[in-house]
Amino acid sequence: MPERTLMGGNIAISEGAILAGCQAYFGYPITPQNDLLENMANRMPAEGRVFLQTESELAAINMVYGAAAVGFRAMTSTSSPGFSLQQEGISYMSGAEMPAVIANIMRAGPGLGNIGGAQGDYMQCTRGGGHGDYYLINLAPSTVQEMMDLTMLAFELADKYRNPVLVVADGFLGQAMEPVVIRDRVKKLPEKKWAITGAKGRPKNRINSFEMNPIDHPKRIKLLLDKFEKMRINEVRYEALNTEDADIVLVAYGSAARSAISAMKMARSKKLRVGLIRPITLFPFPYQPLSDLAEKGCKFVVAEMSGGQMLEDVRIAVGNQNEIKLVNTYGGVPLEADPIFEAIDLMM
Amino acid sequence: MLISQSRKTNYIVIDKDKCKACHYCIAVCAREIIGTSKEINRFSVNYAEVIPDKAHECTGCKSCAIMCPDVAISVFHSRVLEAGTIS
Amino acid sequence: MADMSKEEMNDYDNVIFTRPDIMVDRATHFCPGCGHGIIQRLVGEALQELDLQERAICIGSIGCTVTAYEYFKVDGMEAPHGRAPCVATAIKRCRPDLVPFAIQGDGDLASIGAGEIVHAAARGEKITIIFANNATYGMTGGQLAPTTLMGMYTSSTPGGRNAEQSGWPIRMSEMLATLDGPAYIARVAVNTPANVRRAKKAVELAFRTQLAGLGFAMVEVLSMCPINWRVEPVQAPQWMTDNMIPQFPLGEFKVIPGVAALKKGDRS
C-alpha cells in the first residue's frame, strides 16, 4: 500500500525530485517558493546529496549547469523574476545539451509584480525564454499530486532529450495542501558517457554550446531543431474532459484549470454541454485536439491568469472561424469558477 | 673500447610554425643568439630562429622558452663527443 | 677536457624544457606577445607535474580564454560570462575528487562576474581560479575593463579613463583577501623570466591548495596585451612594469597556515 500523506505543492515538487534521484539542488529564496528551497535544505544533506543556497538565481542556474555537466541530476527552483535571470544559463544549457529541471512557481509580473500566483510567464516558458533557437518541454501540474509526478517525469524527459525541462506552476498551487500518494524511488539512473568526469581511460569530453568554425555551428543547431521536433511529435500531454459532445470547450492549465473544472461541472449540472482541454505540456502544446474540436464547430473559452498568453496558442490551433473568449485575471488575483461560468453562460 | 670524451653544450629548437615573432625570446636572450628569419611562416611573420654562428653560445638558461607565449621553444643539454679516453 | 664514465656518456640530449605532454601540440589563437600563452603554459606545467590529467576539469570563460579547454588533454567545459566560479563550485561539490579550475579575464572575473567570484571566495569553495589581468577587454577590441588604469586609452574611453565617468580600477586580489574563505591569493606577472618563474610557483601552489582541500585559491596574473595597449609586443613587458605593477603590486595577499606549510614543504 503506497504511502499517502497531506503535502504542500512546493514540497511535493521537492519530494518528487528527491524520489527521482535529484543529486544536486541549487536555489535562491524568492516568494512564493521559499518552502521548496527550505525543504531541500533539510532533505538533501540528509539524503547525502548536494544542496547549496546560492548568491542569486544567476549563480543557481550556472551551478545547475556545472552539476549537469558532471552527469548529476540537477535542479533549481525559482519564481518569475528569478526565472528571468536564469534565461542566459538555460539557453547555454540547451545549447550544450545538458539535462536539468527548473521549477518556475509563477507570480504576478512584470517587474517586481506581486507575490500572488499568476500565469504570466507562459510566453517566456514556451518559447525557449532566452536567446537563440531552442525550446524546453514545459510540464504544467494542476494538482499537488501532479506537482510530484510531473517533477519526476521532468527528470526523465531531461535525460531523454539532454535538454532542460520546466515545471511550470503558480504561487497558489505551490501553497495548496492536498493528499498525495508517495511514488516509488527511481532505482537506476541513466549512464551519461558524455559527462565530464575526468578524462581517465578515454578521450577527453567537452561540454559547450558553440563551434569555432562557422560552418559547423549551423549543423549543431540543426541537430537541436530536429530534437525539438521529436519533442513536438512524441511528448504532447493533455487531459480531455467531456469533450466528445461539447459545444463549448474550456482551455486552462495549472490553478486556472481547477476553476475551469468547477465551472464545467456547474455548466453540466445546468445541462450545458461544456468540456475541457487541459494542457499538461505547454510545450509541446496540444494543438491537434483543439484543432479537431474546432473543426466540429466548438466554441472556446480560454481561462488563464495572465493578460492573454495561452490565448495565442489556442488561436493558432483553432483558427479564425470559431469563437474564442478569454476569461482572465492578472496581477496576482486568483481566477475563480464564477467568471468562467458566466462566460459560458453568455456564449450559449 | 671506444675512445672518446665529451663536453656539455646546450641548444634550443624553435618550432617555426608556432612562432608569431613577438621577439620576447630575442629580448631576453643574454647571449643574443636568436634572430629573425628572412623567410615567413604560415602566420606571415619573420619567425625567430637561432643565428647559426651564435648557436654554440647557448647557456641553457631557458629564459627564451620561459617567455615564449607560443610554447615554441624546447631547450636541450647535449653531450658532444670528441676524441679522448673513457675509464 | 675531463674524462667521462660510460654512464655519463649515455647521458645524451636531455630535454630541459619543452611543451608539457598534457598540452595539445598546436599553435595558439593568441596575438603575438599575449600573456595568455604564457599563463596557459604555466597551467599546463602545473597539471602535468601534479599528474592531474585524469582529474582536472578545465573551465573556459568568455574572452580570450573561451577555448582554454582546447589546449589541454583534460575534460573541459565552457561557462557563461563571469559564471565560471559557479560552474567550478558545482563540479567540486558534486564530485570532490575532480579538480576544476578556471581561467578568467578581467572582464569576466571583475566586471560581470564580480558577484560570483566574491561568493565563491567567501564560501571558501575548493577551486582554483587563474585570473588573467591585462587591464583591457582583449577579445572584443580593447574596451574599458574594471582594471583599466587611470588615463589609459581604451576604445570605449577614447579620452583616457577618467574618474568622473568611469571611476577607479579594482584590485581584486586585495579585495578578496579581506574575506575569510580564501586560502591562497597571490598576484604575479609574466613580463620577465624571473616573474614567470615566480608565477609558475604561485599557479602550482594554487592547484596544490585545492588538492590539499584547503580552500579557495586564486592567482591574479598580470598579462601582456600588446595589441590593445597599442605597443609593439616587445615593448609590452616594460609597459607592464611602468604602468601596471605600480597599480597592481605583486605579492601574496592571503596565505593560510596550511598553504604556508605546503610552501615550506616544497624546497624546489
Report on the structure:
By secondary structure, chain A is an alpha/beta fold. Chain A is built from 13 helices and 16 strands. In chain A, 41% of the residues lie in helices and 22% in strands. In chain A, strand 7, helix 7 and strand 8 form a beta-alpha-beta unit. Chain B has 87 residues and is mostly beta strands. Chain B has one domain: Alpha-Beta Plaits, CATH 3.30.70.20. Chain B is built from two helices and four strands, in the order βαββαβ. The longest helix of chain B has 5 residues, at 24-28. The N and C termini of chain B lie close together (10 Å). Chain C is 37% helix and 17% strand. Chain C is α/β, with parallel strands linked by helices and 268 residues long. In chain C, helix 2 (35-49) crosses helix 8 (193-211) and helix 4 crosses helix 5 (114-122). The interface between B and C is large, with 41 and 38 residues.
Summarize the helices and strands and which ones pair or pack.
The complex is a heterotrimer of chains A (348), B (87) and C (268).
Chain A: E1 4-8, H1 9-19, E2 24-27, H2 34-46, E3 50-53, H3 57-69, E4 74-78, H4 80-85, H5 87-95, E5 100-108, E6 114-117, H6 122-126, E7 137-139, H7 144-161, E8 164-170, H8 171-175, E9 177-181, E10 206-207, H9 216-234, E11 238-241, E12 248-251, H10 254-269, E13 274-279, E14 281-283, H11 287-295, E15 299-304, H12 310-318, E16 324-328, H13 337-347
Parallel strand pairs in A: 2-3, 2-4, 4-5, 5-8, 7-8, 12-13, 12-15, 15-16
Antiparallel strand pairs in A: 1-9, 5-6, 7-14, 11-13
Helix pairs in contact in A: 1-2, 1-7, 3-5, 10-13, 11-12
Chain B: E1 5-14, H1 24-28, E2 34-36, E3 48-50, H2 63-67, E4 73-82
Antiparallel strand pairs in B: 1-4, 2-3
Chain C: H1 6-9, E1 14-17, H2 35-49, E2 56-60, E3 75-78, H3 84-94, E4 99-105, H4 106-112, H5 114-122, E5 128-133, H6 163-166, H7 172-177, E6 182-189, H8 193-211, E7 216-222, H9 226-229, H10 236-247, E8 251-255, H11 257-265
Parallel strand pairs in C: 2-3, 2-4, 4-5, 5-7, 6-7
Antiparallel strand pairs in C: 6-8
Helix pairs in contact in C: 2-8, 4-5
